[in-house]
TrEMBL record:
Residues 1-413 form the Amidase domain. This is Amidase domain-containing protein. One of its GO terms (biological process) is mitochondrial translation. One of its GO terms (cellular component) is mitochondrion. It comes from Rhodotorula graminis (strain WP1). Residues 340-362 are annotated as: Disordered. InterPro entries: Amidase, Amidase_dom, AS_sf. The lineage of its organism: Eukaryota, Fungi, Dikarya, Basidiomycota, Pucciniomycotina. It holds the Pfam family Amidase.
Amino acid sequence: MDEFGMGSANVHSHFGPVLNPAGPVGIDQSLAVSAEEQRVAGGSSGGSAAAVAAGLCDVALASDTGGSTRLPASYCGILGFKPSYGLLSRHGLVAYASSLDTVGIMAREVEPLRRAFVSASAYDSKDPTSAPTFARTRADEVHLALRERLAGREGAGVRERPLQGVRIGVPADIFPTSLLSSSSVLDPIRTFLRTLVSLGASLSSVRLPSAPLGLSAYYVLASAEASSNLARYDGVQFGHRAEEKVGEKEQLYARTRTEGFGKEVRKRLLLGTFALSADAFDNYYLQAQRVRRLIQLELDDLFRSPSPLATPAPPAAQRHDGVDFILHPSAMSTAPLLASCSPAASGSTSTSPASPADTEPASRSAYVQDLLSLPASLAGLPALSIPAGRSTDDGWPVGVTLVGQWGADSEVLEVAQRVEAARAVEQQ
């Protein structure tokens, strides 16, 4: 995985980049091609994604702060699930950004993923962010009507069209221009949407006007929380300790942290420390929190089910308008070429600095890859990346993400299972 979960391509690892085994020519051939043709597995949990895609395991745990489960799942052509914030215990997980960190699950099929989620979803007193039992119970009550629709209890013919009555919103306004202009990536997504319609789901266009601001807000908030969480790695109680020499203790701390953290981690810690400084706190950190709240409110306003976390407790009755789920592409493109990552990003130990022309475009694109996955992360909502097919251009996997209201995790997985069953029949 990327060091401390900081990365979107899994090239910021002490052990080198993770290679994507999900190429169009099969696992063995995908790993045997030249270095110039290798593709990244995605990050930060690319190791888990590659292990699942290669068939080394049925289910793998991952972590998801801003898309670290869903992005590699999309690149590797598997399922990647970020549950509702607080449903899975984070006890034992090294903290990156405490208000965003979520334990994720990866698998090739929905059923083993669902079993893993059900087994792990329980309140844990050792995790201060674990959702209490009353919140879980309230979520069950709020989503009862949706569960009944998915169970086929509303009228004749529903079992033949198992998603009859389910509304899915497509926020086309957050689709980047580069994706809209790529028919090779859009074609599998259109096919996936047609499958949903054939199962009885209704599609509608929705808008998330504040979502593009989420990228900047996320990197301010996540970096600020990382600055606080990783301050413990000072060489006294945690982590690497630099060789002691005569001098001030501040010099020992600085040398220890410079030696112990990789380049990408140091960059984000510096950004986070600046965002929390007295001069920048109001202009950056507080503004980012306001953007986060805007995105949360916009998403809540789209869903037919009210948020179970609302205060006072929301009514059990659903709204007449609104959607049950939101669906959008998981990533901006198929898995990028490993060669497109800069030497600095890939952890090169070369002492010759790369030119800005070589490093800047790759660096920017790595951060922009998180754009589509961030709204669900900032709002703490369940999101599942589902394989939609393969690009007609390069043959690599394309994924779509299904997002539900907080606590509708089982319902998200149920929709994916119905789609999986329908596509299995089509392929027979």
